[in-house]
Write a structure and sequence with these properties.
ABC transporter involved in vitamin B12 uptake, BtuC; 73% helix; 4 strands; 299 residues; mainly alpha; single chain
């Protein structure tokens, strides 16, 4: 029983990490109809920004408020990168989906190469603050504290994104702009600013995933964002490309399947099991687990 509890909590922690990455993908695609393959680059920038700040930024560090400052720096760096990508790369290509894909794929390859050129290809040890070091007992099982942090962060991001989508003026403007940009512009509303805001929010979520992912894995690498992005895309497809709720459900499902399959079978079979679930969903529910709600583009 203790093993099952541990696998469930660690699976939820992994699912929370996937959700932090996939939520930004889902938000950008659901509201802006942009398939962003450079999303993993924002994660890598957030991870390395947090690592650099914890080791070099005055006032930051691996302890207490210093680590929080490092995370804020990393998230800010990822957010800034997302804004620059939207302004310089995506904005001139709205409505040109093939060109968007080619441009973002190029960025997804260029950013890790740049990071590797600056800090090398070897994994770098990620700072671990005392607050999330060690374990915390739950139902008689010692669970790593960083798993709890990931779960709490994912819940907070889910609530924030849901409120943005369904309760804010900007969420309404972006949804209307995707449907009929000319009409919204004719009303005197600058849709471009709203699109930039959405990209910034998505980049911030990815950068936060990079910062907390460093805690989960203990190291950061230049290609970490690319490898995690693969599972993020799987999560988005399983959950429904325009559904935030479906994204959350799929994240938990994928995380639990990986943990249980890897433990009770052989290492690596969890990835194959996730691909099998993806194939089953595509064959039976092409719109994802929440395909009936996907048309709403908000839930």
């Amino acid at each position: 029983m203790s093993t099952v509890v541990l696998l469930i909590i660690t699976g939820l922690g992994l699912g929370a990490l996937y959700f932090l990455i996939a939520s930004g993908l889902s938000l950008i695609f659901g509201l802006m109809d942009v398939l962003n393959f450079a999303h993993g680059a924002f994660l890598a920038i957030g991870a390395y920004g947090t690592w650099w700040a914890a080791n070099h930024l005055p006032g930051a560090g691996p302890a207490g408020a210093g680590f929080l400052l490092a995370v804020v720096f990393g998230v800010a760096a990822g957010t800034l990168a997302a804004v620059l990508v939207e302004l310089c790369v995506i904005r001139p290509l709205y409505g040109k989906h093939r060109e968007q894909i080619l441009a973002t794929v190029g960025l997804s390859l260029a950013v890790p190469a740049l990071i590797q050129a600056i800090w090398g290809a070897d994994p770098l040890t990620f700072p671990r603050p005392e607050l999330v070091s060690g374990t915390l007992p739950l139902l008689g099982v010692n669970v790593p504290k960083d798993r709890y942090l990931l779960i709490l962060a994912a819940v907070a991001v889910f609530v924030a994104l849901w409120l943005f989508n369904s309760r804010t003026r900007y969420g309404l403007i972006v949804r209307a702009g995707v449907q009929d940009r000319a009409m919204v512009t004719a009303l005197g509303i600058d849709v471009r600013k709203s699109f930039t805001l959405v990209f910034a929010i998505g980049g911030a979520a990815a950068a936060l995933a990079g910062a907390l992912g460093g805690l989960y894995f203990g190291v950061v690498t230049p290609t970490q964002g690319m490898s995690l992005l693969i599972f993020a895309f799987i999560v988005v497809v399983i959950g429904g490309t325009t559904s935030l709720t479906g994204c959350a459900i799929a994240s938990v499902t994928v995380g639990l399947i990986q943990q249980f399959a890897n433990y009770y079978t052989v290492a690596g079979l969890g990835d194959i099991a996730v691909v099998a679930v993806l194939a089953a969903v595509l064959l039976t529910r092409q719109g994802g687990l929440t395909s009936k709600k996907s048309a709403e583009r908000v839930a």
